[in-house]
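tool=predict chain=A
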Amino acid sequence: MKNEGHAPDVVTYTTLMDSLCKTGRDEDALQLMEAMEGGDCTLDVVAYTCMLYNLRKIGKKEEASKLLTTMKQKGCAPDLVTFNALLASIAKSGDVNGAFRVYTEIQDFGFKPDVYTYNALIEALCRAEDVEEAFNVFQKLLDDGCSPDLM
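tool=predict ok
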């Protein structure tokens, strides 16, 4: 691409990072992210969210936590999509405590949980076989004015 006079942008890099992660090459994706930071391409919330989701998905909790801290330090504020992506990846592992930590952080950042937030919490609780609490979260979803969807 560069050889043909075209400079890759953040969308191109994010697509590459996501593809690398999906093929088990997360270290290459992290190196690409570092190269972006050192080059002329600024990481945006979508790029960070992509990496956070993929790192959590493959069980790299510490790396994801460090990346979230770096994201905030660099002035790139996470949005609700970022938090929901983290929450979804945590929920798949059944980490109820981790899921509720992210849920609290969502509210601390001033975001209103949406149906995706609640779906992830319900999934984490169901994976942990806590159906009663999952029902309580479902009731909270309704109380907060969210419309349930088909997960």
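DSSP finds eight helices and no strands in the chain. The CA atoms of residues 30 and 127 lie 30 Å apart.
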